[in-house]
């Protein structure tokens, strides 16, 4: 595992070096502005969390394309490989930070992505009336959307969040099912 | 404009959570902006990230625009909402940059100083470059124009015909308005798409953008009155 871990890190570095960059603070402020708009648009914090997840999902389905095209990673052998790729290559490539994989369950179907440094939460403090807000919930959606495009149906949730007083950010990812590749009905009709 | 009570506190420096095992780095990099691929930036910032990918930003902005678009009925309203979002960012950028500025007499009291600060210093901090040019309107004394060939918000955006004059740089226009307002130069700022003509078109002809964005800054009356007194 150790060697493959190193390989992921190297791939992540390579992919990151190829990307155009923007100022992380500007990114964080922009994200803050967006969350603020959601908070204004939806009364309910739960609805904001859901909307952030949906937005992340939309990003994820498109992001996987760019990821596969630019990262240089091949198909993942197993879920462990997938987890390492998300944490070491994908997070590095897009957000410039490396995450850790931890807390595998006994069956090997669920793991946690642990994020020590989250660029989204720069300058952020949750005001008391929004303490239920999952500020970085967009990340869960991104992972869910991206994995769904490679035939993996997963559930993602923020298990621990620095903004809510935890000591690190932990995204729990649970594999629900591996989708079978199948043709759309329209495809058969055309035959 | 955003009501103060509705803002999230996004400028407060984070306070380490008591009992947290993760110590936030205390040193920070004051040099911000788009720096070409630099592996040193991360180390120089004491392990703190100073950059994210342009793709991540573009994905985010795209979602923001789509969210707003679903809630408005006109292009104008869409741009106003983007400006609103930018306004809140502009206030914070001003505060952050002023806080880091170590120079003496940093408060800008003259109109041109403030504009130059926006088009050079703020621009460099946010986008890693200065604005392409700053011009004064020949017709109206209270109007200035900041030209930008390719605003960061428009890199991957192609506006469909049915959205006509939409320019996503309205977000940046909002930032300019917020920063100027924070510095006591209230102004209305709008983003306009201008097709390149003549010389400019030739320069950028090789695969470059065909349009540029002009941010029209129109200062309010009181600013012009004060400026006249100071002159």
From TrEMBL, chain A:
InterPro entries: Bet3 (IPR016721), NO_sig/Golgi_transp_ligand-bd (IPR024096), TRAPP_component (IPR007194). Transmembrane segments: none annotated. The keyword tRNA-binding does not apply. Pfam families: TRAPP (PF04051). One of its GO terms (biological process) is Golgi vesicle transport. Keywords: Endoplasmic reticulum, ER-Golgi transport, Golgi apparatus, Transport. Its main location: endoplasmic reticulum. It comes from the Eukaryota. Coiled coil: none annotated. One of its GO terms (cellular component) is Golgi apparatus. May play a role in vesicular transport from endoplasmic reticulum to Golgi. Homodimer. Belongs to the TRAPP small subunits family. BET3 subfamily. PANTHER family: TRAFFICKING PROTEIN PARTICLE COMPLEX SUBUNIT 3 (PTHR13048). This is Trafficking protein particle complex subunit. It comes from Tribonema minus.
UniProtKB/TrEMBL annotation, chain B:
CDD domains: TRAPPC5_Trs31. Gene3D superfamilies: Trafficking protein particle complex subunit 3. Its main location: endoplasmic reticulum. It comes from the Eukaryota. The keyword Transport applies. One of its GO terms (biological process) is endoplasmic reticulum to Golgi vesicle-mediated transport. It is found in: Endoplasmic reticulum; Golgi apparatus. Pfam families: TRAPP. GO terms for cellular component: endoplasmic reticulum; TRAPPI protein complex; TRAPPII protein complex; TRAPPIII protein complex. InterPro entries: NO_sig/Golgi_transp_ligand-bd (IPR024096), TRAPP-I_su5 (IPR016696), TRAPP_component (IPR007194). Keywords: Endoplasmic reticulum, ER-Golgi transport, Golgi apparatus, Transport. Belongs to the TRAPP small subunits family. BET3 subfamily. This is Transport protein particle component. It comes from Tribonema minus. The lineage of its organism: Eukaryota, Sar, Stramenopiles, Ochrophyta, PX clade.
């Amino acid at each position: 595992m150790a060697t493959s871990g190193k390989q992921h890190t190297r791939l992540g570095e390579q992919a990151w070096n190829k990307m155009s960059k923007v100022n992380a603070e500007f990114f964080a402020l922009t994200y803050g502005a967006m969350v603020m708009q959601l908070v204004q648009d939806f009364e309910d914090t739960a609805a904001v969390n859901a909307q952030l997840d949906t937005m992340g999902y939309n990003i994820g389905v498109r992001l996987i394309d760019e990821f596969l095209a630019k990262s240089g990673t091949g198909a993942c052998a197993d879920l462990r490989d997938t987890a390492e790729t998300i944490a070491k290559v994908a997070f590095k490539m897009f957000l410039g930070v490396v995450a850790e994989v931890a807390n595998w369950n006994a069956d090997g179907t669920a793991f946690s992505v642990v994020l020590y440094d989250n660029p989204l939460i720069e300058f952020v403090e949750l005001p008391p009336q929004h303490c239920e807000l999952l500020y970085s919930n967009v990340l869960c959606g991104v992972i869910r959307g991206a994995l769904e495009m490679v035939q993996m149906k997963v559930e993602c949730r923020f298990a621990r969040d620095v903004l809510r007083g935890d000591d690190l950010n932990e995204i729990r990812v649970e594999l629900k099912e591996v989708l079978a590749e199948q043709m759309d009905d329209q495809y058969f009709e055309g035959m | 404009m955003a009501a103060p009570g509705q803002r999230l506190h996004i400028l407060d420096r984070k306070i380490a959570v008591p009992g947290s095992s993760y110590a936030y780095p205390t040193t920070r990099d004051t040099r911000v902006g788009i720096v070409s691929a630099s592996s040193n930036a991360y180390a120089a910032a004491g392990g703190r990230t100073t950059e994210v990918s342009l793709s991540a930003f573009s994905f985010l902005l795209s979602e923001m625009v789509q969210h707003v678009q679903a809630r408005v009925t006109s292009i104008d309203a869409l741009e106003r909402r983007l400006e609103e979002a930018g306004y809140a960012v502009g206030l914070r950028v001003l505060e952050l940059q002023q806080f880091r500025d170590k120079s003496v007499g940093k408060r800008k009291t003259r109109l041109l100083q403030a504009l130059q600060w926006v088009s050079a210093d703020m621009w460099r901090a946010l986008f890693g470059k200065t604005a392409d040019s700053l011009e004064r309107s020949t017709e109206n004394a209270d109007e200035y124009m900041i030209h930008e060939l390719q605003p960061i918000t428009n890199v991957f955006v192609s506006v469909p015909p049915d959205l006509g004059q939409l320019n996503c740089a309205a977000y940046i226009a909002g930032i300019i308005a917020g920063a100027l307002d924070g510095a006591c130069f209230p102004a209305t700022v709008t983003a306009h798409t201008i097709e390149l003509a003549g010389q400019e078109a030739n320069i950028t002809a090789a695969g470059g953008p065909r349009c540029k964005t002009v941010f029209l800054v129109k200062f309010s009356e009181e600013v012009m009155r004060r400026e006249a007194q100071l002159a």
